Amino acid sequence: MNIGQAAAQSGLPVKTLRYYEEIGLVTPARTEGNDYRDYSVMDVEHLRFLQRARAVGFNLEVCRELLDLYRNENRRCSQVKRLVLEKIEQVEVQLQELHALKSILTDMANGCAGDDSADCTIIETLAQPKPSFMPFMLVESSS
Amino acid sequence: MNIGQAAAQSGLPVKTLRYYEEIGLVTPARTEGNDYRDYSVMDVEHLRFLQRARAVGFNLEVCRELLDLYRNENRRCSQVKRLVLEKIEQVEVQLQELHALKSILTDMANGCAGDDSADCTIIETLAQPKPSFMPFMLVESSS
DNA sequence: CATAAACCTTTCTGTAACTGTAGGGTAAAG
DNA sequence: CTTTACCCTACAGTTACAGAAAGGTTTATG
């Protein structure tokens, strides 16, 4: 089938399919006369697999590993699980960082009048933070 | 002062200082003989301000706005606070997305034996998810 | 049969915020 | 004088595509 149909069935944009071919993830056949890409049913399965793996946050490098495992009958389930556990750890780190940021930003907003004056505690904090307010800055600036 | 010292005092890498000059954020003077960058004390203040604004998650576009407000004596505090409140909203959206991802990934990991067999429920889920497992896929694939 | 719409093709450029590398000039120390 | 540590510019690379230019093909319609 043509690229447009493959895109519709996989839930991915046409440009993404061309990109995935360029980096060797899913390489469809070509029709003889006109050089159009010709995606097989299995190609589309792989594209759908990639779409879902991306949707749960795996980057393309890991998606490639996952797809290789999907295509490999000799895979071991433990290999797959390890990738998922690693991703969970990354997500947890990101969550912690974002929680910390939100806490700082919320403190900033709460300490700020938000009126028409030029005096602004947020600007002051960014210009010269009190350690009690942004304690991690001590660590950062000592590196 | 030279770029190396300015970098050390601001907590930013040398390459970042050159980049910030390239995009017009902080443009130091040049020494006459050798074209070395010559950062003033105020330049370094601005760099430190940028370092902290970046550290709490603002992108460079917003950092530029914040720096402009910092330099502008006619700023209104409310303008600053609005930027912080917007950022908080963004962080909250990201937190929700990450929580959802973590939940899906954790379900995947929990449902998987992680042994030496080739049968893997994670791979199966990515290949053909059950709606109860990845319900958002229904929305995604209908677009 | 002509033509217009809807496909398809390649290639180049751009995104964010830098980092790395190549190839060179300059300054302080021994 | 030489080494070492700076400094400079300019260009390529990173992620995962999206947009646009310029053109070939297929299909539907008049």
Condensed summary:
With 143 residues, the first copy, chain A, is an all-alpha fold. Chain A is 64% helix and 3% strand. The longest helix of chain A is centred in the middle third of the chain and has 34 residues.
Tell me about this structure:
Two copies of one chain form a homodimer. With 143 residues, chain A is an all-alpha fold. In chain A, 64% of the residues lie in helices and 3% in strands. Chain A has one domain (3-112): Multidrug-efflux Transporter Regulator, Chain: A, Domain 2 (Orthogonal Bundle). A two-stranded antiparallel sheet of chain A has the order 1-2. In chain A, helix 1 (3-10) packs across helix 2, helix 1 (3-10) packs across helix 3 (41-55) and helix 3 crosses helix 4. Chain A is elongated. The model of chain A is unreliable at 139-143 (pLDDT under 50). The interface between A and B is large, with 60 and 60 residues.
